[in-house]
Amino acid sequence: MPSSDSLDLPFDAHAHGRPVVPSRSRWRPLGLDEVTLTGGFWGDLQSLNASTMIDHVEGWLERLGWTGNFDAAAQGRLPLDRQGREFSDSEIYKLLEAMAWETGRTGDVDLDRRLRALAARVAAAQEPDGYISTMFGRSGQRPRWSDLEWGHELYCIGHLVQAGVARARTYGDDEIVRVAVRAADHVCDVFGVDGPQQGVCGHPEIEVALVELYRVTGERRYLDQARLFVERRGHGVLGEIDFGPTYFQDDVPVRDATVLAGHAVRALYLAAAAVDLAVEDDDDELLEAVVGQVRTTLARRTYLTGGMGAHHEGESFGADFELPSDRSYSETCAGIASAMVNHRLLLQTGDALHADAVERVLYNVVATSPAQDGKAFYYTNTLHQRTPGREVAPDEVSPRAASSLRAPFFAVSCCPTNVTRTVASLGAYVASVDDEGVQLHQYAPATVRGDLGDGRVVELEIATSYPDDGRVAVRVLRAPADGWTLTLRVPSWADGARVTGPDGAPSVAAAGYVAVPGPAQGGQVVLDLPVAARWTWGDPRVDAVRGQVAVERGPLVLALESVDLGDDVATAVVSTDAPPVERDGQVLVPVARRDVADASWPFGAERPTAPSDARLVPLVPYHAWAGRGPATMRVWLPVE
Amino acid sequence: MPSSDSLDLPFDAHAHGRPVVPSRSRWRPLGLDEVTLTGGFWGDLQSLNASTMIDHVEGWLERLGWTGNFDAAAQGRLPLDRQGREFSDSEIYKLLEAMAWETGRTGDVDLDRRLRALAARVAAAQEPDGYISTMFGRSGQRPRWSDLEWGHELYCIGHLVQAGVARARTYGDDEIVRVAVRAADHVCDVFGVDGPQQGVCGHPEIEVALVELYRVTGERRYLDQARLFVERRGHGVLGEIDFGPTYFQDDVPVRDATVLAGHAVRALYLAAAAVDLAVEDDDDELLEAVVGQVRTTLARRTYLTGGMGAHHEGESFGADFELPSDRSYSETCAGIASAMVNHRLLLQTGDALHADAVERVLYNVVATSPAQDGKAFYYTNTLHQRTPGREVAPDEVSPRAASSLRAPFFAVSCCPTNVTRTVASLGAYVASVDDEGVQLHQYAPATVRGDLGDGRVVELEIATSYPDDGRVAVRVLRAPADGWTLTLRVPSWADGARVTGPDGAPSVAAAGYVAVPGPAQGGQVVLDLPVAARWTWGDPRVDAVRGQVAVERGPLVLALESVDLGDDVATAVVSTDAPPVERDGQVLVPVARRDVADASWPFGAERPTAPSDARLVPLVPYHAWAGRGPATMRVWLPVE
């Protein structure tokens, strides 16, 4: 409960549980008490998050002693008893953020109790001046801020601040909010324009957190500090590292960059912060810069799955069109960060490209990470698994990010906690409002309440089994008497989509957004999206997919697994003479297996020929791959 | 000059300047005073090495203070004045080895003086007990052997020992030989079966050096120590590192491995040592293990260029058939190490596969590294350059191994010194002997003197402009009266090769080795190899080359550069309807340029179609690429 030294939060700090609340935007976001996922793919994942994933993560953080680091700090047992890597504090903060969104969403009393207990342990480790880290600053540890390149101190505090923001937005003043505010104040004292430290963090994250804390509290110094961090970066302010300055976006100011480069998560968190900053500062030049970077990144540096990061080395973007399937890094966290950036840009630009990107990455990267039982996760998301690999034991911490199967936890375990906070707050991606009406961006069984302003409220009930089926029925539960507009996204792949208004006359809806007059209460609009399985080809400059084809169904990328082929997918050749077959809820494609002869040298004068004995083989949604144990897998299938 | 405490070297320590002298072998190696390259591709490169590359490397090592580290050690100025990375000592040792082979080859008096001066500076830094390192063991430095995983102490001493071996083999007893012997003795004291240290070095190298030092000195403890190192490895004897134990071949004993894996240079140096050890120990099981590993590696994990190492991350081998062109690491040092291993296996097995591999990697990796002026080097050797990159300034140390253009020197500069020692000793790869006759493995203008034993000597003069032309004329200057056999390698690509004996009747020679009766003095044998440019296709499991074709001419891999295409090679499409055209010493292929439209998303329903406006565009030998400034480049060309 709020204690006596409670914050003086502005009246609207709660903001209906909206994760991102820009001061101005073309479309205004909705929050977790305005959009309720009532089932379906995402609602089920939220339920799994609530029942299992959050518990799983909480248990592992306890078991590995990363949570205990805070107790050790409070009890003076550091550095002796410290466990985990330099950024382990951030996992506890991301868990707190997940708990905050989840309690805000469901009012789960037990989870609220656990959140408070965890927050108290964190609070006990905070220094009197507001500094907090279990890794730095004590006798026997390195001094505070002595390793901005790799130390992750500001990164961790950024996640603490995001936890505080989530709690403030879903509950109000509370201990973790105050811990976050004190830490943010300390950061401003130390890193402000006259502060003793004039650097930035090697891993962007504090920036996006500080802008949102400004939005919660109205305290301009947080915004000013975020601006300082963003503007300092890109001028070689960080020390030299083996990966070079591009790794942490210190080679060129974000304002001058033309495409995202370097470590993907770092680049995307920084881009998210730059959008927020541009919005608050009315800095259209900065906003346009990020829009251009993201457009180019989507056009040239993004996997079919929406994943980002083509190099294992440096966990970084590759060059334009360099998108190797078998070395796809496509970190789950980068997928989450892409959703964050594209959500922010969607609110500003109204460009369906960004909503398409959010949908693609949520279904095909974020949803791919957790196992069906919610107790194991992918860190990287390859598009081509060459060797079946091995099952990771339920009690095993995977030392390597690139496991062939989902692992219960990792030595570097940023992704599982990131998934939990993202899934708990998924509702925020579904819809937005403006003065005229409601925009629907993502399709799921849900209820939506949109406040258009001036007391004009729209309430909707969305019924759909999308993406299994393409029909989305939007029923109007409440509508303003003076009319309103319903705006529906038509994904770029949905050639032949139709929208049917209350009058029952269907009309073709082109890709992008289609606006229809909002029906009165009791009325209904139906959107029909052609989700049938389709062949997808790559730009000829994407060398990695040359001579190959992918299969998509609606927003889902599909994959061929060896367990369905009955053989290593390395030898598969697919025939594209006819469209993929849909039968009994499965997608099947004709696949032949190539006879390969092992030669002493794999290059020679003979051009490979195609096999002919194709048979229909089922594909699986990419997000479900490796659900039946070790397998080899391909998203891109060789063609004849 | 040898000092009074000279070693008691066996009579045949000199061994005609042979780098590798196995105690038993199917074919016996020849040395640098038995094979003289008299011009042509390799002779010219040796001249460039003598005139420029060795000087260049020597100058840079001095300028960067890496040589000065030894002076600082002798003068008690360490660690304060230390420069360079933890392995920088090894560069001085590799330079000493290069100088030793080069003075042995040419008798260059000035270089001999420089070698002695450099050796004296090294000798002054050796501790009384034989230990030598400028990085460890002093007050203010980490203790000796405290970081076997990354410290490279044994690795450096390994290169010192190889320098000592080279000097012993080309000169005899000398200061650097004695420094090497003392260091090796110290290693045996410390790491022997009863020694205080029971580990191995994170980077194999000491093993191959110790076996050869045994071969020079006859001292069995060096062989025993090499065996200990090889047998200890693979059982998790090294500490945990982020890359995992495969990185330094500590996951599985070399005897049990089925394919080379992990860091490519490490894996190959270890394999070379394992061959040597197997030979000395009559350990056929171990020899067969390495033969199998290398055969599989050539069949599945080697680039068309002969390069090895498919991952930048960990500088490591990839999975079977994972050979991305654009992320080819193919480190120059791994190319050198592959030549070392395949040379050793060739001498044991007589399998032309290994001589083919040596030829391929020498022309297309080792020769690719140095610039035409000998003053810049490639560290990695990509098969696909996506961006032109920038010129590295003549005074610039490249911090990154993967520069788009050759760089004068690197922060990690293993490759330039490795190239100098390899080029200086190239003659050793050309020919071998057995009791029956002479085997020619590599074709270059050269003289060869082969001692068959029992006073039977063959002397040959080889005239050829190979690989420009396919004719190799072997003239007999001296031959035993009782007959002998001339064995010639026919490369695997040389379909239709012909050999013409003294009687003038040509006969078809199949790939592999062809043995002909050795002519008497004055006689001649001519080998005609069909070097005409040809299309080369990849095994369909090599995803990275799907829908693409390469062009080879003789042993040379060719490449398309943007400077010849007049456009980025990303849009090139080649037509293979007719063989490549040869005109005025150039190879030309019909290339069309694809019109590419920039879309907001690079994947869609439309299958790319082929362009039709092909015109003939010249290719360059891959080893010469980027010789005309920044360019994009492809070895594998998309086909229609």
UniProtKB/TrEMBL annotation, chains A, B:
Annotated ranges, domain Non-reducing end beta-L-arabinofuranosidase-like GH127 middle: 438-530
Domain Non-reducing end beta-L-arabinofuranosidase-like GH127 C-terminal stretches: 536-638
Protein's UniProt keywords contain Glycoprotein: no
GO molecular function: hydrolase activity
Statement: the UniProt record of this protein carries the keyword Transmembrane helix: no
Domain Non-reducing end beta-L-arabinofuranosidase-like GH127 catalytic residues, every copy: 34-427
Keywords, comma-separated and alphabetical: Hydrolase
A Pfam short name: Glyco_hydro127C
Chain ranges passing through the membrane: none
Tree of life domain: Bacteria
PANTHER family referenced in this protein's UniProt entry, alphabetically: DUF1680 DOMAIN PROTEIN (AFU_ORTHOLOGUE AFUA_1G08910)
Name of the protein: Glycoside hydrolase family 127 protein
Source organism per UniProt: Cellulomonas wangsupingiae
